[in-house]
Specification:
It is a single chain. The protein is α/β, with parallel strands linked by helices. It contains eleven helices and 13 strands. It has helices at 11-22, 40-48, 62-72, 86-91, 93-114, 148-165, 200-208, 236-252, 272-283, 307-313, 321-337; strands at residues 2-6, 26-30, 54-55, 76-79, 118-124, 171-177, 179-181, 215-218, 230-231, 233-235, 259-264, 270-271, 289-292. Helix 5 (93-114) runs parallel beside helix 6, helix 7 (200-208) crosses helix 11 (321-337) and helix 9 (272-283) packs across helix 11 (321-337). The model has no long low-confidence stretch (mean pLDDT 97). The chain binds uridine-diphosphate-N-acetylglucosamine (UD1).
């Protein structure tokens, strides 16, 4: 089966390309390199021994996308390409709504036109906001989003559901990711944050590498065992495998209007401090950090219940926090030892 992977050179997209290939699919990468680099394709080739077809196309370019669909005749789409910086989305909401919603509308329209039946969407646990009870299940109510970014994920889920229910020839799954971290164990691909990393683990690896002087831990006075926020950190290769399982499920379902959502997490919450100490232990180094005021908009505590994806998609996270943090550090070291990826 030939699968279009939008944002296929990005962090989660590139790892998913590897897993699709390993599972016997033919991934086709489409990326505008807004937040990724063409050099990622070399990493993919080193891991898989394969040069994947690549289109440098923006998903806002309907005609350009239409030409790719016409040429390739896809069997499925996994849609990663989106803006994802929470803070930036607060400053530039229209840019986020225009891009994240517009690209989805283009892709769904083209799936209808070219009769591509299988669609997997990159959603986020951000749709749960600050949950009233933990762990969160798929039936935990969604909350009003705390950022335009989060709102785009929620609206996109609704758009896909409504489209599928309209008897469109498309069946779909939205995967609600918890916090993806780590890198491919080969250290050939990983996260490539542009500028100052906003997320915890890339910031940690850059502090460990001496690129940044100190990690600010945002808040140590939360109502949690050690006072820092709690998240469900999932290894990016585990997350990538969930996409393969989602495609399998959609492809074999008999239901005409199949749409479902799945949490993709480990089921375990870890605090920011636990991440720091585990990183130090597993990589045998010390991190320079200090406690700073809370970051506005942060959820205090969230982790998944992953029973639904375990039983219905036969997927379960396999890697530990320690493995994730070891892989993240190996990747950072590789980045420092070689010419920058361009
Ligand atoms: C956020 C979004 C998530 C999105 C992800 C991608 C929410 C609730 N979550 O995740 O949907 O997919 O960004 O960008 O909108 N931290 C520090 N110091 C740092 C960086 C982070 O202490 O330098 C702390 C944060 O305060 C937080 C935790 O680490 O408590 C995780 O932060 P981060 O990695 O940014 O992820 P989320 O905010 O959980």
């Amino acid at each position: 089966m030939k699968i279009l992977v939008t944002g296929g050179a990005g962090f989660i997209g590139s790892h998913t390309v590897v897993e699709l290939h390993d599972a016997g699919y033919q991934p086709v990468v489409l990326d505008n390199f807004y937040n990724s680099k063409p050099g990622v394709m070399d990493g993919l080739e080193k891991i898989t021994g394969k040069k994947f077809p690549l289109y440098q196309t923006d998903c806002n370019d309907f005609d350009g996308l239409d030409a790719v669909f016409a040429k390739e005749q896809f069997d499925g789409v996994i849609h990663f390409a989106a803006y994802k910086a929470v803070g930036e989305s607060v400053e530039q909401p229209l840019m986020y709504y225009q891009n994240n919603l517009g690209t989805l509308l283009n892709l769904l329209e083209l799936c209808r036109k070219h009769r591509v039946r299988n669609f997997v969407f990159s959603s986020s646990c951000t749709v749960y906001g600050e949950p009233d009870s933990l762990p969160v299940t798929e039936s935990t109510p969604r909350k009003p989003a705390t950022s335009p970014y989060g709102n785009t994920k929620s609206i996109c889920e609704d758009i896909i559901r409504d489209f599928v229910l309209s008897k469109a020839p498309v069946r779909a799954i939205s995967l609600r990711y918890f916090n993806p971290i780590g890198a491919h164990p080969s250290a050939e691909i990983g996260e490539l944050p542009l500028g100052v990393p906003g997320n915890l683990v890339p910031y940690i690896t850059q502090v460990a590498a001496g690129i940044r002087g100190k990690l600010s831990v945002f808040g140590n006075d939360y109502d949690t065992p050690d006072g820092t926020c709690i998240r469900d950190f999932i290894h990016v290769t585990d997350l990538a495998k969930a996409h393969v399982k989602a495609l399998e499920k959609i492809n074999k379902t008999d239901e005409a209007s199949y749409y479902d959502v799945f949490n993709v997490g480990t089921g375990q919450g870890h605090s920011v401090l636990e991440v720091i100490t585990t990183f130090e232990q597993v990589n045998h180094l010390r991190l320079n950090y200090s406690f700073e005021p809370r970051r506005p908009g942060d959820v205090i505590k969230i982790y998944a219940q992953s029973d639904k994806i375990n039983s219905e998609l036969n997927w379960k996270a396999e890697k530990t926090l320690a493995e994730s943090l070891s892989d993240a550090w190996r990747w950072q070291q590789k980045l420092m030892s070689e010419a920058p990826i361009s």
